[in-house]
Fold this protein.
Amino acid sequence: MQFKNFTCLLICMMSLWACNQAQDNKTKSQDGSATDERTFLALDGDTLEPVEKSEEEWKAELTEQEFRVLREAGTERAFTGEYWDNKKQGVYTCAGCGLPLFSAETKFRSGTGWPSFWEPIRADHVWLKDDSSLGMMRTEVLCARCGGHQGHVFEDGPEPTGLRYCINSVSLDFVEGAKMKAEKP
């Protein structure tokens, strides 16, 4: 029991550290306004900037279900999403902004009815956030580029990480045959 408490504490501390790092990345531009220097890597290795849109812009671009999940932290029903049983090789990207999030190489069959991965493509492509909704403590997974809700991460996954990133299919797009060119930071 103490090990689980320690692990939860460690995850919380890492989440706080990630939030602080994101704040540390904000600097002043030449005119004195705050800018965000975070950059992300696309599948082709190009640099991507953070995405910030209004609620109206998101509603215009996303389907009703995509908006409910990505922007309002909803959840699709188990065993109904397009990718829960996908066995093809490729890369899963954020449906909101195209940021590469997970490789098919880290996908595993969890039996939960949602796509499950034991590790993101790059640690800095996902944000982890404490989630106390539904009367329980969980760790929410967000796209670090656009802030879109992806799902949750749990500590009951396979080795080598022991983690299960339980992700909504509607939060993802799939690029069959793609490989991420970037190395992990």
Observations:
- Residues 37-176 form a domain with the Metal Binding Protein, Guanine Nucleotide Exchange Factor; Chain A fold (CATH 2.170.150.20).
- The chain has three helices and 13 strands.
- The first helix runs from residue 2 to 24.
- Residues 151 and 167 are 4 Å apart (CA to CA).
